[in-house]
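User: Structure please.
Assistant: Input sequence and predicted structure:
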Amino acid sequence: MKGMNAFWGNIFKSSCNDARNTEQLLKKIPLFAGLGRGDLREIQNLAHCRHYRTDEVVFWEGEPGVGMYVLQRGEVGVFQDYGKGRQRELARLGPGDFFGEMALLENDFRSATAVALAETDLFGLIHPDLFDLFNRKPHLGVTILTALAGMLAQRLRRTNQDLQQMLGLPAGSGAPASAP
C-alpha cells in the first residue's frame, strides 16, 4: 500500500475488505461527511484495516498516539486505568463511531485504553499518511481539520456543561463562582 511503512504493514492489512462499505461508513463520520467521492476514495486508500478479538487491546493509555480508528463492526470500550482494579469506563462505541482522533492533531500520549469488547473490525487512519495526503491536497486537509476543530469544540462545550452541572452552577454561568 502506498504510504504505509513497514511497522504499520505488520500490524494492519494493506486494504479494507469491502471498499463499498468503507466508503459508506466514511460518509457517516462527521470528519469526512462533507467530502466528495474522489476525496473519500483518497481517505479510503489510507485506511489500514485490522480485526480484533474480544478483550484485545487496541491501544494502551500512556502509549504514543499515532492515529484514529473507525469501527466497522463490533464494539470498543474506552477506559482509564484499564486492568488496574479501579478501571473506569469512559465510553462504549459501536459501528460508525470513531476514536483516537486527537492523535491527528498532536504527538502526545493516549489518555485512555481502548479495548475490543466483541469481535471487532476497525480501520485506522495514521497521522503520517493523512498529513502526506494533506500536503498533496491542502484543500482536503483544511476541510478535514476544520471539521475536527468543530467537533472538538462541541465536545469541549459539552464537557464544560457537565462540569458546571457537577459543580452545581446554573447552565451558561461560565466559570466557577470562585474564578476572577
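Strands lie at 48-52, 57-59, 67-73, 76-80, 88-93, 98-99, 113-116, 120-126.
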